[in-house]
Design brief:
By secondary structure, the chain is an alpha/beta fold. It has eight helices and 16 strands. A hairpin with a 2-residue loop joins strand 7 and strand 8. Bound molecules: flavin-adenine dinucleotide (FAD).
Length: 340
């Protein structure tokens, strides 16, 4: 059996940033991920300046595609306006692999199935043993399922479903576009150009609210693709997108049980206005590491619930994404429909 001080399950931004910080602080750490990196991760790949600051990432030294914007073009209820905000775009397939390599801890490809507690150790699949266990496995995190689900049941009405495709494309419009609540979507669609001729297009909405209306994300995707064609943003698109589901931020009561922690999407930390999850994942990973190595309290209360600083905009978006749909679903049970 392989023994280590800290065992991290999941090598996305939450797990790799936790590993990075633990290693800097001299904690022996091992990371397991079910997939070999570089791996596909569905994501628009839009990151904030806070993400760069948390990761101490200087774009000049980042070896992959990196694009910066100073505004979003927002389309809302038939109006289009520019929202000034410095943002960046990366490709997750590159970014996550780079972060994982940079963190410098040993990484083993292993799909975790069983977690048991034996004295002061966590035993994973009878093969790995650690005093500290960090659940960074995203929506399907096995640490969440084994140790946290009963304490922190996920709220169905905060589950978002997405479809997305990233591809080489000679785009004519280099701006980042967001369409909110188009065709009554309880969410938004995006067009995010990457550096050197890549483009990410996608759509995400609240799963329960869509279902309650007899709508679904595939129907919304077809409408979105037709709109992109009409606007000449993407012509003749016929690829099949891929889907993923994750959770927006709820009140999260328990993020640590004894020496087990959960971080990132395993908690459900994505913001309630923009469903931004990379920044909260990284921040929580770093905080869990500080709790282990420095004895700090581990709490996600200080991690922002919103992406957009302008109060009225995030309130408006939250109202149409979360508050209004939730009202009509207030009797929904607190268990996810279908994770992943
Ligand atoms: C379509 C889409 C678009 C998005 N766009 C954005 C965006 O533009 N900006 C933004 O900030 N956020 C965005 N998000 C959210 C963001 O992608 C997530 O919040 C973020 O990836 C969470 O990071 P994480 O490290 O917690 O989990 P993940 O990145 O999901 O990593 C989890 C890792 O755990 C591994 N794992 C899972 N189960 C096991 C197991 N049993 N054993 C071992 N390993 C396991 C997985 O292989 C994976 O590598 C988007 C999400 C989607 C779906």
């Amino acid at each position: 059996m392989q023994t280590t001080d800290a065992l991290i399950i999941g090598g996305g931004p939450a797990g790799s940033s936790c590993a990075w910080r633990l290693r800097q602080q001299g904690v022996e750490t091992l990371l397991l991920d079910a997939q070999a990196f570089p791996r596909l991760k569905l994501c628009a790949g839009w990151v904030t300046p806070e993400v760069l600051a948390d990761l101490q990432l200087d774009p000049a030294h980042y070896p992959h595609r990196f694009n910066s914007f100073d505004q979003f073009v927002v389309h809302l209820f038939g109006l289009s306006f520019k929202l000034k905000s410095v943002q960046h775009s990366i490709r997750r397939v590159e970014f996550d692999a780079w972060l994982l390599q940079r963190c410098g801890v040993p990484v083993i490809q292993h799909n975790v199935r069983e977690i048991v507690r034996e004295g002061s150790y966590y035993i994973v699949d009878g093969a790995y043993r650690a005093r500290y266990l960090i659940g960074a496995g995203g929506t399907r995190c096995p640490v969440y399922r084994s140790l946290f689900r009963e304490k922190n049941p996920r709220a169905r009405e905060l589950q978002t479903v997405t479809l997305e495709h990233e591809f080489a494309y000679d785009y004519a419009d280099p701006r980042c576009h967001l369409w909110f609540f188009n065709h009554k979507l309880p969410g938004y669609a995006w067009y995010v150009p990457k550096a050197n001729g890549y483009l990410n297009i996608g759509i995400g909405g609240m799963a329960q609210a869509l279902k309650a209306r007899g709508d679904d994300i595939w129907h919304q995707w077809a409408l979105f693709i037709a709109d992109l064609d009409k606007k000449s943003l993407v012509r003749g698109f016929h690829e099949q997108p891929k889907g993923y589901s994750y959770y927006l931020r709820d009140q999260v009561d328990t993020v640590r049980v004894d020496n087990a922690f959960i971080v990132g999407d395993a908690i459900g930390l994505a913001t309630r206005d923009m469903a931004e999850g990379i920044g909260p994942a990284i921040r929580s990973g770093l905080m869990a590491a500080d709790a282990i190595s420095k004895g700090f309290e581990y709490s996600v209360r200080s991690i922002g619930r919103f992406s957009i600083e302008q109060g009225w905009i995030h309130r408006l978006l939250e109202y149409f994404m979360v508050t209004r749909p939730t009202r009509s679903l207030k009797h929904a049970a607190k268990e996810p429909l279908n994770e992943g």
